[in-house]
Design brief:
Elements lengths: L1 E3 L7 E7 L19 H5 L1 H15 L4 E5 L11 H15 L3 E5 L2 H4 L13 E3 L6 E5 L4 E5 L23 E7 L16 H5 L5 E5 L5 E5 L2 E4 L15 E8 L5 E6 L4 E8 L6 H19 L4 E8 L5 H6 L1 H16 L3 E8 L12 H14 L2 H16 L3 H4 L10 H23 L3
Parallel strand pairs: 2-3, 3-4, 4-5, 7-8, 8-9, 9-11, 14-15, 15-16
Antiparallel strand pairs: 1-13, 2-12, 6-7, 10-11, 12-13
Helix pairs in contact: 2-3, 6-8, 9-12, 10-12
Pfam family, one: Metallophos
InterPro entries: Calcineurin-like_PHP (IPR004843), DNA_Repair-Maintenance_Comp (IPR050535), Metallo-depent_PP-like (IPR029052), Mre11_N (IPR041796), Pesterase_YhaO (IPR014576)
Protein name: Metallophosphoesterase
Length: 429
């Protein structure tokens, strides 16, 4: 990602814009998956921060901007704060300033508010916007932290006018006009930022990197490390270069250490389980190669029309374990499967079933097409579900009787299993 914006005069500097580090963020139930590299993932945010510090030192940047959600709420212990302080000390020794606004996750924590930091680090207050100057660079950084976890007012509206003769940077944690998957915190219109007259807006809160506009640059750097499959793809920060007589250069720098991905395996026309595994291996190899040298954590989706549809659903656990085993043998520590979704479909034009199987097909079709019937089925099964062991009921892979979509998936698996057994009993294929 590379952007050229308005020309900046009488200036030569370089800075890093980052946000949403979520240092030591807890796992999203990954420990529930057998064989998950739990400790490696637990340390991922620290290793990504280490990459960011090394980038700042290697590039000899003048300052670092952190646009909120440095932490993830209260720490489990003081090690999180001590680790961050030690990294800031490295930047202090190199003469690199650090400017921070606290976001919704930071504001939700209590321990972080009394954190002692080296003199190069400044956290903007939450009561009102503040301006900090770097006189040697003629830079003015404007910012305001969140006072609480859910800030719904337009903070940008209260930011001060630009300082004459300086490069003005706005540091803000915001959803802007709203982004899917993110709470609508500190919302503002793009025009609120553009019309302020600043030279660069360093935003945070949205975990996908985006240059919203180029003149002036209004930028989300994205998070530094994906924490679940919805935060897939390359993650990192923005390295910004401003030189006299030239437009600002904005480069996205990849600093993540583990990559979350999705891989779709098309099984159209597949006739044997060996063919399923071969297609999976070939497709997953592309995913692993595309993200080297980083290890990947992947969600696998089996799709397409295949004669194996019923067989796969009838013994879905075997298929999942076969895929995991295939991945372990082929890729070792380079890849791990987070989840496998079966979204295959039966082949069109198949000779219709008759007798009991046809009656079963009609019943399942009626239930599947009616949310009310699925809800009623869930209500019937709820007492049985409550009798299952607690470990299963709390497992991320378990079904929810009150979720029609989950019931539809369960119904499809039960249907496939019954059809498979009825065909086997009748001698049909």
């Amino acid at each position: 990602m590379d952007s050229r914006g308005p020309v900046i005069l009488n200036l030569k500097m370089k800075f890093i814009h980052t946000a949403d580090i979520h240092l030591d963020s807890p796992l999203h139930r990954l420990e529930a998956y057998d064989g998950a590299p739990v400790e490696e993932i637990r340390q991922a945010s620290r290793r990504a921060l280490e990459n960011l510090i090394n980038l700042a030192l290697d590039e000899a940047v003048d300052f670092v901007l952190i646009a909120g959600d440095l932490f993830d709420g209260d720490w489990r212990d003081y090690n999180t704060g001590l680790y961050f302080t030690s990294r800031m000390r490295r930047l202090n020794e190199a003469g690199i300033f650090v400017f921070i606004v606290q976001g919704n996750h930071d504001a939700a924590g209590q321990m972080t508010r009394s954190l002692p930091l080296p003199p190069n680090v400044h956290i903007f207050p939450s009561a009102r916007p503040e301006t900090r100057m770097i006189d040697a660079l003629k830079v003015a950084v404007h910012g305001q932290s969140f006072s609480r976890a859910a800030v719904t007012e337009n903070l940008a509206a209260g930011y001060p006018a630009p300082v004459a003769g300086h490069v003005n940077i706005g540091l803000l944690h915001t959803s802007l006009t709203g982004r899917p998957g993110h709470e609508n915190y500190a919302p503002c219109a793009l025009e609120d930022l553009v019309n302020k007259g600043y030279d660069y807006w360093a935003l945070g809160h949205v975990h996908q990197a985006e240059i919203v506009t180029h003149d002036p640059p209004v930028v989300f750097p994205g998070c530094v490390q994906g924490r679940h499959v919805r935060e897939g793809g390359e993650k990192g920060c923005m390295l910004v270069v401003m030189e006299e007589g030239a437009a600002p250069l904005i480069h996205h720098q990849t600093i993540d250490v583990i990559r979350w991905t999705r891989t779709v395996v098309d099984l159209t026309g597949a006739n044997t389980i060996d063919e399923v595994l071969d297609r999976f291996r070939e497709e997953f190899e592309k995913t692993v190669a595309r993200n080297e040298p980083l290890p990947v954590i992947a969600r696998i989706e089996l799709a397409g029309r295949t004669e194996l549809h019923t067989r796969i659903l009838a013994d879905v656990e075997y298929i999942k374990q076969a895929l995991r085993s295939t991945a372990a043998v082929a890729f070792g520590d380079r890849a791990w499967i987070e989840k496998i979704q079966v979204n295959t479909r039966p082949v069109r034009g198949r000779v219709p079933d008759s007798g009991p199987i046809n009656e079963l097909n009609l019943l399942v079709e009626r239930l599947s097409s009616s949310p009310d019937d699925l809800q009623a089925l869930g209500d019937e099964l709820a007492p049985l579900f409550q009798k299952l062991p607690a470990d299963y009921r709390q497992n991320a892979a378990s079904f929810r009787p009150d979720d029609p979509e989950a019931m539809a998936r369960l119904l499809a698996q039960a249907h496939a299993l019954l059809v498979q057994r009825l065909r086997k009993a009748s001698g049909a294929t």
